[in-house]
Amino acid sequence: MAGAQDIRRRIRSVRNMQQITKAMKMVSAAKLRKAQLKLNAARPYARQLQGVLERLAQAPVDAIHPLLKKRPVQKVVYVLITSDRGLCGGYNANLIRKTSGLIAETQQEVKLVTVGRKGRDFFRRGKIEFLAEYTGLGDDPSYNKAKEIAQEVVRLYEQGEADEVYILYTEFVTAMTQRPSQIKLLPIEQPEGKQGKQYIFEPSAEDILNSLLPKYVETQIFRTILDGKASEQGARMTAMSSATDNAKDMIEKLSLAMNRARQAAITTEISEIVSGAASLE
Length: 281
Fold this sequence. Notes:
five-stranded mixed beta sheet; Pyruvate Kinase, Chain: A, domain 1
């Protein structure tokens, strides 16, 4: 059994770790609030773009935009959005597990575009071809970085490197709940227009479509990155909260063990004194 001095050192070590996890929990909570505000601001814009697409679906368009064209699927590209850092519970592991399952089920050739170090490092050990990788987006990713990623993805699609493109990300539901999700990015599924009011487009439906569709891809990538960041901070806050609680339980158990060790030492000393006094008689 460990002595009281050894247990005291362990308690000190665990208490130091508890202070660190508690501080990390508070930092993650602050970052989560900021990420939620940014995500909540981006979602209405994405819905508005969807609404414009629905209205465009009602307009007669002579030419089909390249991002709407469907072709036989031989190459599938997954855009995987994970974090750069760990200590966020099962956030990365759950998404990587989902991605691995999809790759195993996909009959076509699979290629990857990774956003975040964790996904990149995991799949780099395999035989899957990487078309692009992006790291270091930070806790406050910019729209310009999403635009850069979108331009590369569009280029890959237009040049035939991909026949279908999917985004794999973690959807933020609440601070306690994050859901690994998948959306089809390309070709863009043009929503069926609802019959109703007729709209006049200026300069023309074709011109608006040419401008709108690349913007739609950028917005989808930006929104999913923001979902991922909010999910990451929520998962990290939950993980650090659990670690702090576990440290508290461990300190209580170690304190109990230390008290028992002290009592055992005192009992031993008393027994030795009694034995010594008896021998003198």
